[in-house]
Design a protein that fits this description.
By secondary structure, the protein is of the alpha+beta class. It has 3 domains: 38-49 and 305-381, Beta Barrel (conserved putative lor/sdh protein from methanococcus maripaludis s2 fold); 51-62 and 207-301, Elongation Factor Tu (Ef-tu), domain 3, CATH 2.40.30.170; 70-204, OB fold (Dihydrolipoamide Acetyltransferase, E2P). Helices cover 30% and strands 36% of the residues. The chain contains 5 helices and 20 strands. The strands form 3 sheets. Strands 1, 14, 15, 16, 19 and 20 form a 6-stranded mixed β-sheet that branches. Strands 2-9-12-11-10-13 form a 6-stranded antiparallel β-barrel. Helix 2 (98-133) packs antiparallel against helix 3 (139-172). The two termini are 82 Å apart. The relative contact order is 0.18. InterPro entries: MdtA-like_b-barrel, MdtA-like_BSH, MdtA-like_C, MdtA-like_HH, RND_pump_MFP. Residues 106-173 form the Multidrug resistance protein MdtA-like alpha-helical hairpin domain.
Length: 382
Amino acid sequence: MQRTRVNIFTVIVLASAVFLSGCDQNQQVKAPASQPTPVGVITLTNQPLMLTKELPGRVTASQVAQIRPQVNGIIKTRLFTEGTEVKKGQALYQIASEVFEAQIATSEAAIAKAQASIANAKAKAERYADLLAIKAVSQQDFDEANANYKSTQADLLTAKAQLKTAQINLNYSKVVSPISGQIGKSSVTAGALVNANQATALATVTQLDPIYIDLTQSSSELTRLKKAIANGEPDKDLAIHSAVELTMEDGSAYPHKGTLQFSEVTVDPSTGSVTLRAEFPNPENLLLPGMYVRAVIVEGVKANAILVPQRGVSRNTKGEPTAMVVSKNNTVEARVLEIDRTVGANWLVTSGLNDGDQVIVEGLQKIAPGATVNAVLDRINC
């Protein structure tokens, strides 16, 4: 009886095992095969790209003239209105000129006297020359007469030089502007005593049109650009005298474009930067010396640039930029990149990607290198 019960239990256990095994086999047969993961991709295309750089800068006047007197005297009249535009050669101050006029008269009298002395000395020298020929005078007497004639000629030259100096001083009594521009306030009034080459300027004239922008660029960036130009990467001819765009202090765009003039040949040791100068027209006087601005300069054109959306680039554990690329057999391949700069919402890639590569930009969180994917064109970047 007991043996019969054991046999029945054994049969039940075996039957249950067979049943469960059959269920597992049915489930394995019915389990669907794994499907490729759909991902959004973009197809890279080489394209020409104008390389630009935004640099900080300060506005600098193209010309600044500090007006100082070149003769001593009393300011008789101020001939300009403070804060207005003045022209090159325009009279700004009149210094009392009576002393200089008297010096001219004195010099003219000295010339007349020298001319009279020359006539007398010349006649005497000629007579002594004739007398010397017949031994009527000594050689010493003739030499003295001839030397006196030459001395009177020198006196005439001296008198003429003094007259020219007096005329120059008279001209300097009228202080004129050496450049065209806007004049500031006057540091003196009528009746003030001024001296030649004094330290204090009478006024300052600033030329605002055209105007300069002194830009600052790091020496490392300039070196990198020069190496790239040497390797023929950007078109260097476009960067020469290229247009420069300007952003004002309030963020607005300056209405006129400028041109890049030159770059300094020395590096500032305190900042490690070099100075570039751009010239801008300034007819409305919107730009004033000392203002802070930002300028966009053209560095050149890269003929075959590769641009990748920033959302398609991540960093690996080493901090290197990487992108996931769909290979020809529809598997995911990780690429380590070298990137140059951002261009809008894209990275400019210099190494790691090629024309025609399909870069994954959607579904990155669902894949890993080696996974099989179904590439779908990403409509956002079409």
